[in-house]
Structures are given as structure tokens and as C-alpha cells.
Specification:
This protein is mostly helical and 208 residues long. The protein has seven helices and two strands. It starts with a helix and ends in a 44-residue tail after the last strand. Bound molecules: zinc ion.
């Protein structure tokens, strides 16, 4: 179908615009003013994570997404302060104006962002893409730290200061005492044993 091909071409063009995005010296400086401890390499990591966020938005214009990183949200806000450049970038990358503050965080939005982030990074179903790692890696104050999977089944083994992505949408089915295999939705990778703790008696379980 022609329109499908056109959409694909347009999406590739928009992603290329994001990959070419250069962050202004002013924006970098303002980010460093906010986060004093960041080195030049750290800033480049934040820029990489910000590009990942923009690629996800460019590829999935209709998806409901949630911004998972505080430092990326900050860089995005700084970028938007250079109003004219930012407007031109938005037009080219998204075909619409995107306001940094206009997005709310929801479990569904976070999970969709996680899925697309993994696709973007090609990093497998149990890894954390850069966008979800960056706050923790750089020890950002009040940043968000994620755990791909706490290992709990039917309950979340909460780890202080960390958000468990396996259970962000709910705890899933509780593991029955004695462990009856049929009780668990084995074929749904969201609940599968892809990574995380080894539940004895279930072997490798397999996620996907
Ligand atoms: Zn959990």
C-alpha cells in the first residue's frame, strides 16, 4: 500500500532529523547549572537519551507515552527555551509542536515507552534502554531509577527508591502455594520469567 510506504519514508526522515539534532551551548550550560555534577561525557549521555526519547515520539506519533527520566525532561525544557530553533525542530521531527510539560506519567505510558525504547536500542526484553538508565547512571538528584524486574511473582518485592517495571501496571497473578504451573500466564512475556529471580521448580520458563 502506497500510504504505508509513505508513512515509513516520513518516519525515517523524521528520525534522521532527530539523529542530526545539535544541542546548543546555551542549553548545555543551563543543564549544567541545574545539575552541577555532570561532566562533558555525562551531558553527551543525556543528549543520547534525549534523542532516544525524540526518536520514539517521531516513530509513534499516536502512542501515549510517558517521560521516564528527570534529566531528559530537564534538557528537553532547556531546548524548548531556544524558541525559534525548537519550533523548527518540532516541525521537522514531529510535524507538530511538542510542549515539554504537556505529558503526564502513567503506567501504560511508561510501559509503551519502555517497549519502544527497547526496540530503538535493540536491547532485548529484559534490558533497560538508555532513557530508563540515564538518571540512575548519572546519580541525578531526585532522578528516577528503574528495575526491569524485581523477581516477584504475583507481588512486587519493592526496592527502596526504585520503580519496578515488571509490576508497574499491577502485580499480576499471585503464585499459588506449591506452584501449579497452569496458574501462571506463561505465554505472556509481561509475566514471564524473562530475567529476574529464579523461581525454583519452574526452570527457565522463557519469556517470549
Ligand atoms: Zn516488582
Amino acid at each position: 500500500m502506497i500510504w504505508k510506504r509513505l508513512t515509513k519514508i516520513r518516519s525515517a526522515r523524521r528520525v534522521a532529523v532527530v539523529d542530526d539534532l545539535q544541542f546548543s551551548a546555551g542549553g548545555r550550560q543551563r543543564l549544567t547549572n541545574k545539575h552541577h555534577n555532570l561532566s562533558g561525557d555525562d551531558i553527551r549521555l543525556v543528549e543520547g537519551a534525549t534523542r532516544q526519547w525524540f526518536r520514539i515520539v517521531a516513530r509513534h506519533p499516536r502512542a501515549t507515552l510517558s517521560m521516564p527520566s528527570l534529566v531528559v525532561a530537564d534538557l528537553w525544557s532547556e531546548l524548548a527555551l531556544d524558541a525559534r530553533e525548537y519550533a523548527a525542530f518540532c516541525d521537522a521531527a514531529f510535524g507538530r509542536r511538542l510542549t515539554p510539560a504537556s505529558r503526564q506519567t502513567t503506567a501504560a505510558g511508561t510501559l509503551a515507552t519502555l517497549r519502544y525504547g527497547r526496540q530503538d536500542e535493540n536491547c532485548g526484553p529484559t534490558a533497560l534502554p538508555l532513557l530508563f538508565r540515564v538518571d540512575h547512571s548519572l546519580a541525578i538528584q531526585d532522578g528516577l531509577s528503574y528495575l526491569a524486574d524485581c523477581g516477584g511473582r504475583g507481588e512486587c518485592f519493592q526496592v527502596r527508591g526504585m520503580i519496578c517495571l515488571q509490576h508497574i501496571g499491577g502485580p499480576g497473578k499471585r503464585l499459588r502455594v506449591g506452584g501449579i504451573r497452569g496458574d501462571l500466564p506463561f505465554h505472556d512475556s509481561r509475566y514471564g520469567y524473562a530475567g529476574g529471580a529464579d523461581v525454583s521448580g519452574f526452570g527457565d520458563g522463557g519469556g517470549t
